[in-house]
Amino acid sequence: MEGQDLKKQSGFAQGVKNRLAVAVGSFMTAILATGIRGDWLLFYVQIQKLWYGESLITEASLPGLDRGAAENGSTVQYENPLERYHMQGVWFYVLYSLLGGFVILYGVGGWLKWHFYIQRRNKAAEWKCQPDRFLTPEDDRLEFRLGSMNMALGSVLSGILVTYIMNGGETKLYYNISDYGWVYFLLSIPVNYVYNEAAAYYSHKAMHIAPWYKRYHKLHHRFKCPTPFGAVAMHPYDFLALQFLIEIPIFFIPMHAGVFVFWLIYGYYYSILDHSGIHLDPFWPWQPQVIFHDNHHKFFHCNFGFNTEMFDKLHGTLMRKDRRYTETTFGGQGAPKSSKPQNKKGN
């Protein structure tokens, strides 16, 4: 009896420990999500403007701006060409974005990599989607370098965008729900989600058209069992295309900043989880399991969606067990298993 009680207590303690580890890991992944694509400063600025109001423009935050002239509506005398394009102080914001991005990427990302891929490597069957497969040391280093490079690229672009916004550059972001009303605000939440997922699916599927795939996207698929750094370990053209599609709507469609920031963080957060290689069940009912995208890396031309299976089901590109998938089987629907497989190098 006493032994059973000790066993129960031990099981309870282990359960609490596991839940705590998941909570800490989720929190750190959320932080990493703001930095891995270099957009942490953009998130920070939008949250600040939501908190303090749209007029969060100060002399300290905008070096070189003739604030008095701007507020009085009089003609602004530009001291240098950067001011004409709302770029004053751009070097400060870019540097700030880069420093923060690297701290987040190497600090939080490094911790996640250390906790699972080093400390628990010998227990891979308990947590890994592909427990018998790890990146080679060469691919591991390449994934890290590519992730770092694209994070730096994203940080520079984010710093430029933040500079533009903070200097009064025009976007369609708004900060008061009353500007467009509650109906518009509430409808914009699912509409923005569907747009992001449609943009991700169709652009990703286009990257799997043979010419683009062979020249650019194949690099991302070199990592057949990715780690958290794999979320942005891709050709810069792939990275820029995805960033462009996600952020371009703020210049054309009125969008509450809170909705924009929420879905941006949501997408980045699950992008990291999807590339983590860690077998996790989703919290949201519409969110696929991590293995959904892990299988995309394993089988190549299927499962093109990110945060929903909807578009894959619609277009018949969801991975099927009765089909065979190889890196040379394009189209997204595989080939009959009875057909003769083509020879290809494995990892």
UniProtKB/TrEMBL annotation:
It comes from the Eukaryota. Keywords: Membrane, Transmembrane, Transmembrane helix. This is Fatty acid hydroxylase domain-containing protein. It is found in: Membrane. The lineage of its organism: Eukaryota, Metazoa, Echinodermata, Eleutherozoa, Echinozoa. GO terms for molecular function: C-4 methylsterol oxidase activity; iron ion binding. It comes from Strongylocentrotus purpuratus. Residues 328-347 are annotated as: Disordered. The chain crosses the membrane at residues 20-43, 90-112, 151-169, 181-202, 248-269. One of its GO terms (cellular component) is endoplasmic reticulum membrane.
